[in-house]
Automatic annotation (TrEMBL):
GO molecular function: transmembrane transporter activity
PANTHER family assigned to the protein according to its UniProt record, in alphabetical order: 2,3-DIKETO-L-GULONATE TRAP TRANSPORTER SMALL PERMEASE PROTEIN YIAM, TRAP TRANSPORTER SMALL PERMEASE PROTEIN
Protein name as annotated: TRAP-type mannitol/chloroaromatic compound transport system, small permease component
Keyword Transmembrane helix applies: yes
Gene Ontology biological process terms from the UniProt entry: C4-dicarboxylate transport
């Protein structure tokens, strides 16, 4: 179970990153408000980077939210199953979820590579190289995938 504990620690790390990005959003918006109110100027990037940071908040929070059973679940049929039935459903749903998240990871990694190779930049004042903010997507999905694997391992070992 050391493997599962390691994966769960990674999920906690993702939650911490999510909280850091939330704090950065707050700081960036506060800076924008102060600059506009008192100095009549703007950062010119607050809206763009708040959007990038919001994606990081969501994507890095997936694994921890899953670990804590905080994702929305419909339990009408599930709750009527016995213990072994729930375990089997958990394993099957876990495998399906891992396949979907793995697919999303693969294609998000391809998107990042393509943005990097083509040197794509945001059509904004900052001209941010898009692979940099896009990189949080496959990283967060990798954490989520690993947490799903930990979930499956726990259910199989029961």
């Amino acid at each position: 179970m050391k493997f599962v504990r390691l994966l769960e620690s990674a999920s906690t790390g993702g939650a911490i990153l999510s909280a850091i990005f939330m704090g950065l959003i707050v700081l960036l918006i506060m800076a924008e408000i102060v600059l506009r109110t008192f100095f009549g100027t703007s950062t010119l990037i607050a809206s763009e980077y708040s959007g990038y940071f919001l994606v990081a908040v969501v994507i890095f929070g997936f694994a921890y939210t899953f670990r804590e059973n905080a994702h929305i679940r419909i339990t009408l049929v599930y709750s009527s199953l016995g213990r072994e039935g729930r375990r089997i459903v958990d394993i099957l749903v876990g495998i399906s979820s891992a396949a979907i998240v793995g697919y999303l990871f693969w294609y998000s990694a391809q998107m990042v590579m393509e943005s990097y190779e083509l040197e794509m930049a945001a059509d904004s004042v900052s001209e941010t190289l898009l692979w940099k903010p896009q990189l949080v997507i496959p990283l967060g999905l990798a954490l989520f995938f690993l947490q799903i694997v930990a979930f499956i391992v726990r259910r199989v070992r029961k």
